[in-house]
Amino acid sequence: MADADIDSAVKHICNGKFSNAGQVCVSPNRVFVHTAVIDKFIKGVLHFTDGITLGSGKTPGKFVMGPLSTENAVRNTESFVSDAVSKGGNIACVGKRTGKGYYFMPTVITGVKRNMDVYLKEVFGPIMTVIEFDNSDDPAELANDTEYGLAAYNIYTASVSTALRLSEEIKAGDVSVNSPKYGYNLPHGGLKESGIGKDCSLYCIREYFDVKRISIDKGAR
Fold it and tell me: How far apart are CA 77 and CA 86, in angstroms?
């Protein structure tokens, strides 16, 4: 939102998007940014991606991003980029594989339209899709314009009323505000086409039971 802490949003969203090269179930697919702060947001994201090192393991003071899982995953990620470009998308950051192994450079796409694969499908790779909106748009309606509904990580706003309204209206199993939250004691699971039931918390125990109704007429002996 226009009143968001952009530095915090950039840090959390980039960490979520590029950790494990985007191969995480709750990795952000679509990032909706208010027009009033989109320039600052993209500038921050590009600064973050400039500091990403491709490789394995951990290096103190550096963000190290590993490879995609298979050759097919690389080709699938390439197809997302080429489809977006063919439909008028802008590649703000790289958008290609490296010459070695299954590594794919961190990618940022702007000017995204609703007919692009990066908007419609799950991007299981290091592609950040940025969609601009303004005061004439309803962020909840935009967020709900998908068949998926696992997680809304995150809503960034300084307004409690805005946070509560969007949290109620967005159709996702997990919603966080201003910082991603995950814990074994919190239910985790999606809505719509994103999974069945919950894991973590006491709610996951329900997955081990079958609910059966038995009715016995009073005449039984």
Answer: 15
Long-range own/partner contacts, residues 60-63 (CB < 8 A, 24 or more apart): 63/15, 63/18
Q: 193 lies in a domain?
A: no
Look up tokens 């980029």; give the residue.
Answer: 81
Strand partners, 155: 177
CA angle (203, 207, 210) in 5-degree steps: 120
* Averaged pLDDT for residues 175-186: 93
Q: Are 155 and 111 in contact (CB under 8 A)?
A: no
The count of domains in the chain is: 1
The answer as to whether 158 is a domain residue is no
Instruction: State the pLDDT confidence band at 219, using cuts at 50, 70 and 90.
Output: confident
Evaluate whether residue 58 is within a structural domain.
yes
Number of residues written out for the chain: 221
Average pLDDT over residues 135-164: 96
Share of the chain above pLDDT 90, in %: 83
* Torsion, Cα of 48, 49, 55, 58 (10° steps): 10
Query: CATH number for the domain including 35?
Result: 3.40.309.10
Q: Give Cα separations from 41 to 9, 33, 103, 131, 158 (angstroms).
A: 8, 8, 25, 11, 16
In a domain, 92, yes or no: yes
Whether the predicted pLDDT of 99 surpasses 80? no
Strand 90-93 relative to strand 107-110, pairing: antiparallel
